[in-house]
Amino acid sequence: MAYKIRPWIAGALLCMALGKANAERFNFDDREQQRSAQHQEQLLQKLTPPLAQPDVRLPDSIEDFLAPQEAPCFRIEHLVFEEAAGFSWLEKKARQALGQCLGGQGLHALQDWLNRALLARGYVVSRVVVPEQSIQDGQLRLILMPGRISRIREEGQGAGWLALMLPFKVGDVVRQQDLDQAIEQLRRLPGHQAEMSLVPGEQPGDTEIVIKHTPGQRWHALFSLDNSGSQSTGKQQAALSASLDSPFHLYDVLNLSLSRDAHWHRLDYGSDSAALNWSVPLGYSVLSMSVNRSRYHQTVAGYSSDLVYAGRSFGYDIGLSRVVYRDSNNRIALDGKLWRRTSHSEIDEVEIDVQARDMVGYEAGLGVRHYLGTSVLDGRVGLKGSLPTHSKEPGEMAGEPEWDGRYQLVSADFSFTAPFQVGALPMRYDTSLRGQLSRTALLPSYEWLSIGNRYSVRGFDGEVTLAGEDGAYWQNTLSVPYPPIPGAEVYLGLDYGYVGGRQADDFLLGNDLAGWVVGMRGSAKAFRYEFSLGGPVAKPEGFGSSHLTGTFWMGVSL
């Protein structure tokens, strides 16, 4: 049973237990909850296949139409475009022929130019034809033959009901963007491969879409061990991650991850967490829901006896993302989320009421992916904030009795992956930049950006971090295959991070960190691994961290 404890007593106990007297500092509880969330996110990434890259690249936008010089030719004064409802953009392009002198070659060039314009827009089976006619009177007649879907059929064993997942239906005009979106949604399932082909239908202009399924194992599991924890609650962490393809036959995905410290024999400290994620594709959208919880406890020396300091958090959210634009080289998506998060801390089963929180909030973002040949650029800008009128307990901030729990921050994430070769040696450069900026005068410390661990600025052990309301970190990694070990690559990384803010600057030892890392990662059949060694390049005086930090992650897939 947990009891309430007065704020001044809580402050005294926290001072003894953690050496912290200021509630809005980035304390151990904040660091532990962030570490748990980052670990759960990493486990989910290990099970999630990468976003499917478009199989077909369409031509870029075409040049203006210019008729070839020929004789005889006839000046076009009037244009009739039949069956072009819904294609006003194409009719506008066709009007470029007005005022130009066309003959046989010109008519063929115009037809070819308009068909290339259709292809550039993704209408891969639609066609413009120039029927037999006389253009001596200056009138030109064109006919659009839109390629429509007459049938959707499957080959092989599908994973569920296609209707909700597909962004098209029978009767729609065939667009390459819709086909790419469908392939992307189909390949979200880790154990399911699908190919899509177009075959002529029974009537002119009709197209059948054939989806060929190559089903695999519907469930996947990954047992892993790493040293991503903290010394206070268990450095070594064991985890089980599992996914199930299409549990409700909607091409949906269910992910479960469980983790805990691997020090089973120790009762004086420990940590564990669990997360459940479900997502279902809906055409150009994806609906997702998740629930998670984490707990930890540690024993610390008190004034007259040892104290058990413990914390727990629980949260759930529902989100929707939607692709609003895509072509062969670009993909733009909007996303939104509503969330609730509760957290509690206790000392010897006595609750610290100044740290109790029960918050409701929102998150919205705009994401962009751009393909540059074999390179991929990803970016996202987001807005996150609280909804105090719907929150039960915003918590307290020392020295801010009027704080009502309202906060808002903007964030930005960018990453770039570029494969290249030096002579015959293939290499890959990965860089990522993440930052945030508080838009309110006060920001609760659990939303601060922290640097100095394997998830931000590498080369530091994560036992102590720098954190602030505002900040950014930049990771850079150069990877090269290691031929003596099949399936392995070695990498070198150099990172930098900066944090600050009105609240954080009052007690920060410094504002920036830089670190280096070298490592090896790879796989051999069902075994996957990553090992690294790193250290600081620059850190504030008095900032405690090991001169060399080793990390490892090992996993076995089922």
Automatic annotation (TrEMBL):
One of its GO terms (molecular function) is protein transmembrane transporter activity. Residues 205-522 form the Haemolysin activator HlyB C-terminal domain. Keywords: Cell outer membrane, Membrane, Signal, Transmembrane, Transmembrane beta strand. It holds the Pfam family POTRA_2. GO terms for biological process: protein secretion by the type V secretion system. GO terms for cellular component: type V protein secretion system complex. Residues 158-200 form the ShlB POTRA domain. Residues 1-23 form the signal peptide. PANTHER family: OUTER MEMBRANE TRANSPORTER CDIB, SLR1661 PROTEIN. This is ShlB/FhaC/HecB family hemolysin secretion/activation protein.
